[in-house]
Structure formats: C-alpha cells, structure tokens
Design a protein that fits this description.
- Among the domains are: 100 residues, Immunoglobulin-like (Sandwich), CATH 2.60.40.10; 119 residues, Ferric Hydroxamate Uptake Protein, Chain A, domain 1.
- Helices cover 6% and strands 44% of the residues.
- It has seven helices and 42 strands.
- It has a 15-stranded antiparallel β-sheet that branches.
C-alpha cells in the first residue's frame, strides 16, 4: 500500500512541474503576432471567445510575440488580437478535438479603433502535429447515415480503420455478451483490443476485453478524433487507435431535437433464406436532446435521451432426430449402426497399416434391423430428446440452410438433414442518456460535470427452442473537470472520473426449469435455480442440443476510479507538457461455467471396424450413453479483484522556425498485478527441464497477483513537421514506442483452477468407448484429474514501435 501511494505522489509532483495535456479532448492555439514586415510584435493582447457561451480566455504574447492558449474545449471561437499602434484583428475559428493549431497573426498599421475581420478556415494540413489520424466533426456525426445510430461505425470513415472480430463484436464471447454494443474496429492493422477509448478526456475503456464502455448517442457528441499512429507522449494506455470523443455542452440559446427512426419488415423485400414470411423486423430509434442556459449567463446545461427497440425474427434450418431415431430405429436413416457390446478384437491387426476391411482393428455385429433395443437406450438421452428437443417440422433433406448467425448448417448429417425450421424473435432494448452542466466561475476558473448511463437488455435465441440467452447490462460514467488559469501562460486542469460496467447474463430456463435435475445426471447442476438449464450435447451430424457456452449464467461489475491532473506552460517557442493519471480498478465477478456439463458424441463407437468408413451414427452413440468427450466444472468460479495503475509523461513542442516544428517527449506506464481481496489463487512455474510446479499467490515469496509487474515501460516519442509555404506540402516523420496491456480476462482464467473449482475433462478413444455414463464422480483433490490454467509470471505488454514518414498535400482551386 505504501508503494502505491509513493507512486501516486510521484506522478502528482510530475503533473505540477510543467504543462500537462493528458485530457487530449482539449485544444491548443499557438502562434506569433507580427507586423506586415513579419517582425514580431511583443506583448500583444490575444482574446478567444466561445461563440456558443460567450466565455473568454485572455493571453498575452511574450517578448518574442509568441502566444499560446491551451486547455480549450473544441468548438467555434472568435480570436481577437490587439496591440498599441496597430489595427485590431478578428478571426473566426473552428477548433477540433485534440487539435494543436498554429496560427500566426499579422497586424496592420492603423488606428486602434480600426478592426480587420477575417474568417480562418479549418487547417487542411497538420503543420505542427506529427500524429496520424482524423477528426469526425459535428457535421459528419449529425448527417452521415447510421443504421442503429452506433457512433463507433463512423470510425470506419477514418483511413486505416476497418471492421474486425473477436469479443469486441459484442456477441462472440460468453463473458462479454453485449449485442449491438460492438467496438471491434481494427485501427492501423492492430487488433481491436489494442484501441483506447476516451470520453471527455476520461477513460471509457473497459479493461476486461479493452472495449468501449459507454456508447454515446450521436446527438450527445460534439465530435471525435481517431489517432491511428505516431501520436505524442500525452496519449497512451494502448498501442492501437486512440478514440477521443467529446460530448456537447449547452449555450446561451435554448436548442433541442426530437426524432424517431423506424424500420419495419413489412416494407422490406424477402431474402433468399427468409423461408416466406419470416422476415419480421420492427426497429425503433427515438429520443431527443435539449441544451441551453441553466441560470444567468455563466451556467449551461445539456441533456440527451435515446432508446432502441429492436425485435427481429431469426430463422434457422436445423437438423433434429426423428421420432423413429429417438426410439432407436435407424432403419430409415441411411446408415448402418453396429453394437459396441459385440466388439471382437482382430488378433492379426497391423497397427502400421491403415484400418480397412482387409486390416480391421476389430469387428462388430450390426444391430438387428438397424434398431437399438429399448433395454440399451440410455434414459438421460431419451428424456432429453423426448421432453426438450423438438420434432422435425420439414420434409427430410430439404437442402442446405443457414444458422441464425448466417453460418452453414451442420456437416455430416444424413437423410434427416435440415428437417426443422426454427423461427424465434431476438429482442434488444436499449435506453441511454447524458446530462452535462458547464459553469464559468470567472475569467480564470471553469468547470463542467457530466453523467452518462446506458442500459441494455434483451434475448438471443441459441441452439434449439428453449435454450435462449438473456442479458441485462448497465454502463455508466460520471466525471467532473475543473480548469484554473494561473497566468496567461500557465493553466491547470484537474479531472476525476468513475466508469462502471455491470453485466448480468442468464439462461431461458433460469428459476423455472431445472432440466439438469430432471435428467438425473450426477456431478453437474451447480448454482441453484438462477443457473438452471440443460447440459450442452454436441452430437455429430445434428444441431447442438441444450444450452450453449453463451448461456453461461454470470454477473460481473467492474469499476474504474480515475484521477488526472494537467498543467500547461508556454515558454517562448516551447510548449511544454507533462501529465499524470492514476487508476483504481475494482472487479468482482462470479459465473457458472460448464456447471451443467458438456458432452460430445461421434459415430466411432457404432462403426463396424473402427474406421471412418461411413458406418455408425453419433446419435446412436448418444442414445447408448457413450460420449467421446465429457466435461464439467465443479464449484463456482468467483473473484474480487483489485488493481492500480499510473502513468505520466513529459513532452515539448518546439517551434524551431515558422515552418518547422519538433515534438519530443517520453511516457512511462505502470500497471500492478491483479490481486484478489478474498481468495487465494494458483499458477504454474516451469523448471529448466519443463517440469511444472504449482504455487499459491503470495506464499513462499511468489507474487500475490501471480505475476510480477513490468517496471520498465518507458515509451519515447519524437516527431517533426516541415511545412513548405505556398506549395501546400507538409513533410512529417515520427518515431515512438507504444504499449498495449493484456486483457484482464486473461487473468480471469486462473479462477478455474483447483482448489476452488474442479475443471474436469474425460476423453475416450475415438472407436473404443471408455466413458459409459453421463454421471461424474465426486471431485477429490489429489485424486481427480483436472485441467490447470497457467500464465507467465513475467508477462510483457504488446509493444509496437518504429519510424514512420509521410507527406501531406493540399491543392487550392481559385
């Protein structure tokens, strides 16, 4: 604990030395005030006024005519420059999120009462910034079409960003099931878990899978920036894309919106796979926003609400056993099944030759009339197939079909393939909102506070009817930010933020249908009524039966408490930056993983000679109670984890000449290991000869968090921008080292180790059954053979580094 606060104190001191801009949603404008002969004008007065609210920022140019105004929120500004003996200059500016604008101002000789007004167009070229990225402005956010109004889709308009896959897709991992809340975008060739999301400068990244926590409504977003690479030392936390989103604020005038977007299947054409009348779709996106003055001329508010109601019929062509097959009659199935109880080993079998009719491994007798006697039918399989598995509702052999996720149907099915049409509704309901209040205390002090929350609930069909999956998630973020101007060249910004993501998943059978209990399988069914459901039966050639891995009852609620402090100092042609941040991560979770059991069946046990020669049936093996693989997890994986991390950087932007700017700095990142406040955890180490040994975290000198933190993550950054005046050309070059931490989910696997849980896997020979029951024996430490998860005790973050050089071109037409 003492070391943790020592690190925190170190970064607070760093943040008070020179300038910090860790909240990169802020904007900076810098330049030189000159006369018509391009001689500097010292001590000119520069005033920036926010068009929306009237808030003002005053700065004074130094003796070399250099001025800088940092810590500005993006938006429209009026820039006014005055100096004795010169006509005042006024320019309209549109400043974008994270922008570092260089704007030299020429004052003409004339009476001070005279004003020269000009409109400053947005910078087409980054003349003083070596980062690679793009800003999606308010016009694009408001006007580009978005199916489902997911702001993350606008990331695809940025060069170097494209759709990817993985847990970030929102529906590909049982731990991270957030349909419609995808953030699987690959930026600059990196994995989607290498992105870092910021909302108003505060961390909006859920560390479990490095995904976006709260997905803001487009109506609540001012604009956002996606940095693809070569960003400066102020940006970190991940080595891929940096996604910096800024919410809207209110203004001096009341302004609001109201809307509803409707999609309905009645107005859609049928696709090839709709099977006639199954394209039911009703989707409503509705909401509104309102912003304006709260009281007086210094306090402004903005509120937003958006909802989604999505109901869609999913059609899937499945393969299910026929009534005759369930009764053991395979006479119409087009395959011959053999009785494994009649196995006779071939004494002349040559293991060096392939198994064939001439070299059989063994021989078996076929079941008389291709029918399994009722006395041999396993009651677990019969109960599952008669009570919880639907009967065919299509003619056999209807051809190929597609699953609900658009994947091909089962492979290896026989005459009864594609004999069941499953049509069920998926439901997705989302409600989210944002409230923000900005206040101008005076010329030197401003603050804003914001709270955002989004609830997601719904149902997704899984496998066969009766085995769906429900989710109920809540994402939240609240922050407060305070800015104080110590002098025209010194600014401090302090921010405190709390982000939380709660995910609650359950099965369709929870609290109402104890299928595992009715089957009578011993050694499975942990968790009580809230975890009721069915085992997962994977029968080769047939659609999966029972609850899938996605139907894993679990509850996780992780929280990030974050503090940032930033300080800005303009010193001549140097724009010095430093920054520090501290995070406290809280992660409780429990889940019933494989608590109902998993069983896999193949045709090998009912073949004639122990070869894949087209004989045998996996369904026959299921009816006989002969799984090839049997898995379960006894016990309840649960944890209550804690972690802290800190980072800091120092950076200088040096304007060497009017057309040459150099950025250089270094960033340091530290992340402690996850530790459990309630439970001990185990891991493996390996001797030089590969022999594994188990250790308990925190005992015998081993790390409590099962790994040693990396204390040497220094990330230097350097960049140069060279503008060629009059040519519309800017040359850039940059170098940097960027770190991406490992997903926290990797650590979660340790909760599946003994002694708290017993993850047991039994596997049989492919053709000779050794598992002859669905039941599991009681797990006994030291006797039960279990699987064990291990991770390196000295892990390294994913590191990306290298040089990059590029040219920006712009051509103006007269």
């Amino acid at each position: 604990m003492a070391k943790r606060f020592l690190w925190l104190a170190l970064f607070v001191v760093m943040a008070m030395v020179v300038r910090a801009d860790a909240q990169t949603n802020y904007v900076a404008v810098r330049g030189v005030v000159m006369d018509p002969q391009h001689l500097v004008i010292p001590h000119a007065l520069v005033k920036l006024t926010v068009i929306k609210t009237g808030a003002e920022r005053l700065v004074v140019a130094d003796g070399q005519g250099v001025y800088e105004a940092s810590g500005l929120l993006p938006g429209a500004y009026l820039l006014e420059v005055e100096s004795k003996g010169f006509a005042a200059s006024r320019r309209s500016l549109q400043l974008e999120v994270g922008q570092q604008m260089t704007l030299d101002v020429l004052l003409t000789v004339g009476p001070e009462s005279q004003t020269v007004t000009a409109i400053q167009a947005a910078e087409l070229l980054k003349t003083s910034d070596a980062s690679v990225g793009e800003v999606v402005d308010q016009r694009a956010v408001a006007q580009l079409p978005l199916n489902g109004r997911m702001l993350v889709d606008l990331m695809l308009t940025v060069p170097g960003a494209h759709l990817s896959h993985g847990a970030q897709a929102g529906d590909m991992n049982p731990l991270y099931w957030r349909p419609g809340q995808r953030s699987a975008i690959s930026v600059g060739g990196n994995r989607p878990n290498a992105n870092y999301f910021l909302l108003d400068g505060a961390t909006n990244t859920d560390p479990t899978f490095n995904t976006q926590n709260f997905s803001a409504s487009p109506d609540a977003v001012q604009e956002f920036q996606v940095l693809v690479g070569s960003y400066s030392a102020e940006m970190g936390g991940a080595g891929g894309g940096q996604v910096n989103i800024v919410t809207r604020s209110g203004g001096t005038k009341l302004h609001g919106t109201a809307y509803e977007f409707l999609r309905n299947g009645a107005m859609d054409a049928h696709s090839f796979n709709d099977m006639g009348g199954t394209n039911h779709l009703v989707q409503n996106n509705f909401g509104g926003s309102l912003g304006g003055p709260l009281w007086g001329k210094r306090t402004f508010f903005f509120v937003n609400y958006e909802a989604l109601r999505h109901v869609q019929a999913d059609s899937m062509t499945d393969t299910v056993p026929t009534a005759a097959e369930v009764a053991g009659d395979f006479s119409m199935s087009g395959v011959t099944i053999y009785n494994p109880n009649t196995t006779v080993v071939n004494p002349s079998y040559n293991a060096n030759l392939p198994v064939s009719q001439q070299n059989p491994q063994f021989t078996r007798q076929p079941f008389p009339n291709n029918v399994i006697p009722k006395s041999l039918l396993n009651p677990v399989a019969v109960t599952m197939l008669t009570k919880y598995t639907p009967q065919p509702n299509l003619m056999m052999g209807m051809g190929s079909g597609m699953t609900m996720m658009g994947q091909p149907t089962v492979v290896g099915s026989g005459n009864d393939s594609n004999n069941y049409l499953d049509v069920r509704n998926e439901l997705h309901y989302t409600d989210q909102g944002t409230i923000r209040v900005d206040h101008q205390f005076g010329a030197s002090d401003t603050a804003f506070a914001r709270y955002s929350a989004g609830g997601e609930r719904g149902f997704m069909p899984q496998n066969l009817p009766g085995f769906g999956y429900l989710h109920n998630n809540l994402s939240q973020q609240g922050l407060g930010s305070y800015s104080h101007v110590f002098s025209p060249r010194l600014l401090n910004v302090a921010t405190v933020a709390v982000s939380r993501l709660s995910m609650n998943h359950t099965t369709e059978s929870a609290n109402k249908n104890d299928i595992t209990g009715s089957l009578g399988i011993a050694g499975v069914g942990f968790g009580g009524p809230g975890a009721w459901g069915a085992p997962y039966f994977n029968v080769q050639g047939y659609s999966p039966i029972g609850d899938s891995y996605a139907a894993t009852p679990m509850h996780a609620w992780d929280t990030i408490i974050e503090g940032r402090d930033t300080l800005s100092w303009q010193l001549g042609r140097h724009s010095l930056k430093t920054g520090g941040a501290y995070q406290w991560f809280i992660w409780p979770m429990w889940g019933f993983f494989q608590n109902r059991g998993y069983y896999q069946f193949t045709n090998g046990f009912t073949t004639d000679i122990g070869a894949n020669d087209g004989t045998g049936s996996a369904l026959a093996s299921f009816l006989l109670g002969l799984p090839a693989v049997r898995q379960r997890q006894a016990g309840i994986p649960q944890m209550n984890l804690r972690q802290w991390s800190a980072n800091g950087y120092v950076q200088d932007t040096f304007r060497v000449t009017r057309n040459t700017t150099v950025d250089y700095g270094v960033r340091y990142e530290y992340m402690s290991a996850l530790t459990d406040t309630r439970y001990t955890n185990s891991n493996l180490t390996f001797a030089s000869d590969g022999t594994p040994s188990v250790f308990i975290g925190g005992q015998n000198g081993m790390p409590k968090g099962l790994m040693y933190p990396n204390r040497t993550d220094f990330a230097p950054r350097v960049g140069i921008s060279q503008s060629i005046p009059g040519r519309g050309v800017v040359l850039h070059a940059a170098y940097g080292i960027f770190f991406t931490p490992v997903d926290m989910n990797t650590w979660c696997n340790q909760r599946h180790n003994v002694p708290y849980t017993f993850p047991e896997t039994n596997q049989s020979d492919n053709f000779t059954p050794s598992i002859k029951t669905f039941d599991f024996a009681p797990a006994v430490l030291g006797t039960t053979v279990v699987s064990f998860t291990a991770m390196p005790t000295n892990p390294a973050m994913s590191v990306r580094n290298g040089w990059i050089a590029w040219v920006e071109l712009s051509r103006h037409s007269k």
